[in-house]
Amino acid sequence: MEREQAIEISRNARNILIVKTNLLGDTLNFLPVANFFRKFASSARISWLVSRPGYPVVSELADVDEILLLEDGFLYDYGNLLRTSAWLRKKKFDLLVTSFQEECFLINLLALMSRAPVRVGYNLRNRGWFFNIVVPKGEAERRVELNAQIIKTFGGGEIGDYLYVPRADAAGAKQFAARLAGLGVKENGLCVLHLFSPKPTRSWRIEHADELIKRLQSESGLTPVLIGSEAEVGKWGEEKKSLGLINLAGKLSILELFYLLKQARLFIGIDSFPLQLTEFASTKAIALFGSTEISKALVPAATVVKAEVECAPCWPEKQVCDRDFICWRKLTPDLILGEAKKLLG
Question: What domains can you pick out in the chain, each with its CATH number?
Answer without folding.
Answer: 3-162 (3.40.50.2000), 170-344 (3.40.50.2000)
